Amino acid sequence: IPPTIRHAMHLVQALGEKYLWVDAFCIVQDSLEEKEDQLKIVWVIYAQAQFTIVAEEGDSAYHGITGLRGIPPPRKLSPQAIHEVSDEHRIVELHWHSEKGWNPWYRRRWTYQESLFSRRRLYFGSSGVHWHCVELARIYSGLVLNSLGASSRFYASYL
């Protein structure tokens, strides 16, 4: 089993989930007709998934998931802009957004469906671990900004 899939299995288990759907194993690869039929409905899988694991780096399943094992050194996150919403809340835009498009994941054709239809995505890449869902985006790069802009360490046992 390639490292990326083994790492995903470890992550799913650590998060208490029971199932992992892997396109390379779950989509028929040796019948073009069956594969095309399955690819037409794969968006349903992404839409109904608890979350989608996105391994941004690497050109194949043999790269592994960056940042899953061990804690990477803290990274500096430089805000691009801070918008005051109220005395208690600020919106901070961070540089990692500009790195999208440079990672191999963003250059693959099928990842558009993952991004468009997945309600929750857990990204692992060179700039850290990013969580996106319809209600929240959280970034781990050794530093997490809370709603007041103060920094705090964030170390999860499974990251």
Automatic annotation (TrEMBL):
Pfam families: HET. Residues 1-114 form the Heterokaryon incompatibility domain. Transmembrane segments: none annotated. This is Heterokaryon incompatibility domain-containing protein. It comes from Lepidopterella palustris CBS 459.81.
